[in-house]
Amino acid sequence: MSFTIAAFWPPPPHETTTERYQEIADAGIDLVITGNYLSDRTILKHALTCAHRTGLGMLVASDPRVDVVMKDLDLPAEQTRELIGKVIDDYAGHPSFRGISLMDEPYPERYERLAVGVAAVRDRGQLPYVNLFPSHATGEYDEYVGGFVDTVKPALVSFDRYPFLADGAYDEGYFGDLAVIREHATRAGVPAWLYIQTLAYEGHRTPNAAEIAWQVNTALAYGYTGIQYFTYWTPDPSRGESFEPALLHDGFRTDRYEVVKQLNNGWLRPVGNELSGLAWRSVRHTDAAVVGEYGDRHLLVCNASFETASEVTVNGPVTAFDPATGSYQESAPTFTLEPGAARLLLTGDGR
Q1: pTM score of the predicted model
Q2: What is the pLDDT of residue 286?
């Protein structure tokens, strides 16, 4: 299963340049999910060109015609497929085009419409994308996600739940939602994707480096193969929700841009590539760690804490993956993980 590192909310139209998109690529991101007023064919095609020049893929999530077809009109299925096909035809000639977002955070009454849209996009050979609510917005979450998977037949299951709250607390429903999404994605045989909180907004605080890494690494332990950063560019204040600086703010890199760049290039990309050839098996929690099992012998061991270092002991012998070389090195079975950090281990006799 391939591994995807995405960013939502790219530079606005007046900052949509090859140089800005190279900045995205330099941060170790490979997929741009549009938004931020990239909402007509002219600017979207220009953005697709910038993405192609810098080796990025692009998921079109801000074409208003899709919203009209999927949310506002209850058209017959054949007409829906025809209109979605026209949207795809506008972009399909661009090598960077990967697919379209059909709806963000749908309610169950839209599932039948989404099923038609997803099939239409898939039939054109592109990625049909839908992002789901977290459980605190839906009621019975297993039923909400299960109904989506059974009715819509998605290409992947994506959701957002941002765990770092403004009062300093941590959202304890985070792991429950990770598990439900993972369970239904596994049952459907499709990837699970997760959004990563990069900024403060209404009711949420700015995460530090350890908290960003902890989100990424717990997702890896749960077998997620899509990491999506929310957001890349800071949303305009006029949109509400009191957004504070994201990875880029007013065109300048924040400290979290550098955090994400180092995390993606130095850890997530090489580890994600290594895990992509392995089947995720299970996850378990201990006092010290969240442990994901891949294949027959691999363990992704993440510090359970984003605040303190933890000492972890696994059954030896083990070797540890070195992301700098792509090889496995000898490791003691007891080791310390810094806050939010993780280690990829190979159990048994090594390679």
Answers
A1: 0.97
A2: 97
Q: Dig out the tokens for 328 from the structure.
A: 């496995």
Cα 15 to Cα 159: distance, rounded to the nearest angstrom? 28
Q: Are 246 and 198 in contact (CB under 8 A)?
A: yes
Spatial separation of the C-alpha atoms in residues 237 and 133, rounded to whole Å: 23
Q: Model confidence over 248-293: pLDDT tens digits?
A: 999 999 999 999 999 999 999 999 999 999 999 999 999 999 999 9
How many CB atoms neighbour CB 19 within 10 A?
Answer: 11
- Our count of domains for the chain comes to 2
pLDDT tens track for 61-85:
999 999 999 999 889 999 999 999 9
Residues 233 and 248: their CA atoms lie apart, in Å, by 5
Give the CATH number for residue 300: 2.60.40
Instruction: Kindly report the number of other CB atoms within 10 A of residue 123's CB atom.
Output: 13
Domain extent, residue 12, equals 4-277
Predicted confidence (pLDDT) at residue 349 exceeds the cutoff of 80: no
155 neighbors 179 (Cβ within 8 angstroms): no
**pLDDT tens sequence across 100-111:** 999 999 999 999
- Domain co-membership, 187 together with 257: yes
CA 146 – CA 169 distance, rounded (Å): 29
Task: Give the CATH number of the domain where residue 167 resides.
Answer: 3.20.20.80
User: Could you tell me the strand order of the sheet in which 289-294 lies?
Assistant: 280-285, 289-294, 298-303, 342-347, 318-322, 327-331
Q: The tokens of 191 are what?
A: 């990837």
Nearest to 136 by CA among 177, 103, 189: 177
pLDDT higher than threshold 90 for residue 139: no
